[in-house]
Amino acid sequence: MKKMRTLRAVFSAALALILVISTLAGCSSRESGDVQFNPAQTDAPTSQTPPPERLTYTDITLLSAGDVMYHQPQIDEAYNGATGEYDFSDTYRYVTSLVSSADYAVVNYEGTSAGDDVFAYSGYPSFNVPDTGLTVLKDAGFDMLLFANNHCYDTGAIGVTRTQEKFAQYGFDYIGARLSPSEGKTYKLVDVKGVRIGMLNSTDDIAYGSTSPRTINGRVLEADDVERIDIFNLSLLDEFYARAEANINDLKQSGADIIVYYIHWGEEYHFIHNDAQAQIAQKLCDLGVDVIIGGHPHVVEDAEMLTSTVDPAHRTLCFYSLGNYVSNQNRLTMDAGWESEYTENGLTVRLTIRKYSNGETYVTKVETIPTWVHRYYDYDAGAMRHVIVPLPEAYLSPDEYGLTKSDFGAAHAEAAYTMTMEQMKGADGRSIVDVFAETVDLPAEN
């Protein structure tokens, strides 16, 4: 028994020695970098893969409003005989917070600011507005003015030049024209919090296809001015498309994340876009434009989503006309048959644009905000007033928005809201906001 225990002890000691040697050998192998087989880890990577970078984004808002027109009654009511100054600030008192809350705000300046040295201040048919008509737009919060429209040549070459100089002096960005036919561009790349928006502006010359001589709204253009204003002619659309394509490509090569085209077109006082607008809009869609916003008809027109014929994955949001932002056009100032009550209405469009950290950029949200011009006689001041109000807020709180200063304010404002919202519906009864929302396909966030 004793011998047996001794043999067992010897055997145990030997086994322990073997285990120690194996352990030391294993440590030595791992230290030297030899791969050790582990059945539980046969599919595991030999090095850890870093997690994908989290996708972040920046949102901005782009606000666009319709046609700003200062007719003679508006100029007259703004004049202060005691000071000799013109004050249009009442017009924008109720929309300033809306405009200034946007990251970038755009409006069409329909007319000129040529000063009163050569031309008298006047409204239709030759718009020449006191400089304070620009000051008040700046104070309201607008950042960019559109200048390519059928009234930009109302005071000829003098007006085209001086108006642009005043735009720059008051700190506006502007598109649609340039000071020299050989310098500068009629379009612009704007950086808004790191989101780069390519913005263009063109106008129909309202020559109905006539090209000799070149005119705009019936006024003969001086030779150089054909190249200073971004105009197109319905008989020369191929020329327009070639120029638009070159400008769009230039913006994209310069780093534009998204392209917005503002265009002055269509038929006045028509609620539905015409065939020429449809053709041009489709071509701009095919050229890669993301958003089209139109003006000129002086009423709000329909809106739709377009699909590119060259890239079915590309969609374009198109508002054919935002109507009047402010003017003296009104059911009481226009003859019957002109759908005059609709000229009091406007549409403000607010887009949310999102840029992701990987560079992909999308319009993620569309908001349509109807407006109405409350034209009434202010007995305290002894003058007419033209005041823009946002809807439906104004008729829901008539005292806060001055609608009780007339006996029709609340009723007409509510009717304006109904009219405009109906214009935003397609044949199937769905609003453009809902139709657009169905097309939004954002990348998955990590």
| Amount of beta strand | 25-35%
Helix percent band: 25-40%
Number of domains: 1
Instruction: Identify the CATH architecture.
Output: 4-Layer Sandwich
**So how many helices?**
10
Compute the separation of the termini in Å.
72 Å
The shape, in one word, is globular
Look up the CATH topology: Purple Acid Phosphatase, chain A, domain 2
- Derived structural class: alpha/beta
Mean of residue pLDDT values: 90
The main β sheet shows up as: 8 strands, mixed
Supply Rg: 33 Å
CATH superfamily: Metallo-dependent phosphatases
Number-wise, the strands total: 19
Uncertain segments are: 1-46
Care to describe what's here?
The protein has 446 residues and is an alpha/beta fold. The protein has a single domain, classed as Purple Acid Phosphatase, chain A, domain 2, CATH 3.60.21. 27% of the residues lie in helices and 25% in strands. It is built from ten helices and 19 strands. Strands 1, 4, 5, 6, 16, 17, 18 and 19 form an eight-stranded mixed beta sheet that branches. Strands 7, 8, 11, 12, 13, 14 and 15 form a seven-stranded mixed beta sheet that branches. A hairpin with a 4-residue loop joins β17 and β18. The longest helix has 30 residues. The N terminus is likely disordered.
